[in-house]
User: Fold this.
Amino acid sequence: MAPRRIIIDTDPGVDDILAMLLAFSALPEEIQVLLISVTYGNIDVQNCLRNVISLFYHVEKEIAWRESVGRSSGFEALRKSKPVVAVGPEHPLTDNTLIADFFHGLDGIHSSRPHLAPAETWQRLFEVAEKSSTPEQGEIAEEMNKTDSLFTPSQTPAHLEILTFLRDNEPNSITIVAIGPMTNLALAAAEDPETFLKAKEIVVMGGKVDQVGNMVYQSHSHLQQVPNIHEPPFRLIKQAPGPIRGLLDARNQITPIAEFNTYADPVAAARVYALTSPNPHRTMPPAPPAPLGQEEGVTPQSFLSSYPDNLSKRLNVTLFPLDITEKYVLTRGDFGASIQPQLATKSPLAEWVSTFIHATFEKVESLHPEVSGDAVELQLHDPLTIWYCVDDDNPKWKFIEGEDLRVETAGQWTRGMFVTDRRSRKQKDDNDDNGAPGDTDGWLTGGDGNRLNRCVGSPGQDIFGQLLLKRIFGS
Assistant:
């Protein structure tokens, strides 16, 4: 059986790391990881890249340790095919809001730091690691100095690497798994839409559709009393320490109506999803306002042009929103029972993973006193997309097909919101493009709107946590 060939577009935090470990530990006939395209997230892109390098360092240590004790090496998919690692932009398409709001706490100067080219990001990461005296940074420097690493670094921008793989392979042979903000994908689609449409499928962890309200929010006085929790290396938990990051870790929802990945760059998400429409220009986001000091009517430099008319096909997008992903959890009790035998045998990977997973459990518990001990849960948002790629022919996966879901990009309070028509009026067939009376936004007119496939069921939410750990740790 030919493996599903995938590109993982990621902003490595806790569940991103688990997702990549699940992909790397797959069988060679299940998955081949071609490219890790790194994007910014709740940490800047340099730290995201550092997390990826750290992941490879610890996987290589784990493989060497397993071989030394006579265990199966595991990570067959990774050992058979080394992925390329490429770096994307440091900010959303049309603004720096995310960086200003969420990165400022890291060093206080990010809003004024010049944007770096990929080669400069790699070089700065190496220089910082080489000059540092900390063991964690020493591991990064060691990994970057290797000539036989399990990855190939690329100084080409991530969106161009995505296009290279799509261009150099047969159409419908590569799946892109997007588990971070979708800026890299939007840039690739704008650069060469027809090549981007050669992708077999875009599997996205993002958005929320049917759920109402945010997570239960503790009072401000309670948040001020949250104890400081020991930090794992490299901020594998997204966001600087504090109440906001704790809330993000407990649930990947950033506002009452928006999930983080979509909120981070709603214009990028809207542009990618528009390619699923019979008429992409009808769901494209509006042009952003001119930046301060720039004359109105002049297109901002970062704004991307519209897609050409008469594209050869529609993009195939499979969406895994919070509605489905938050049901898949790993409890502290189950994790402890599975990881303890690995720790007892001194597994390097178990020691590394245990550090940041336990820190996450502690943070969640501190924010939710009503849940404690072994019942505390980590939601497995990103790994669910990889499970689907590994086991996509299982008939137990359930989807709503061709759903018209649109991303709000300009709302004052609704940035990143998924909008859908909940009225009982019937939409016309795609071949009937006669406008419906009063349908100014094209919700009922045939051929208007996006066509996303939304996951609503899987082979089993109760089994996934244990399956994930068994795959990664091999027992």
About this structure: DSSP finds 18 helices and 13 strands in the chain.
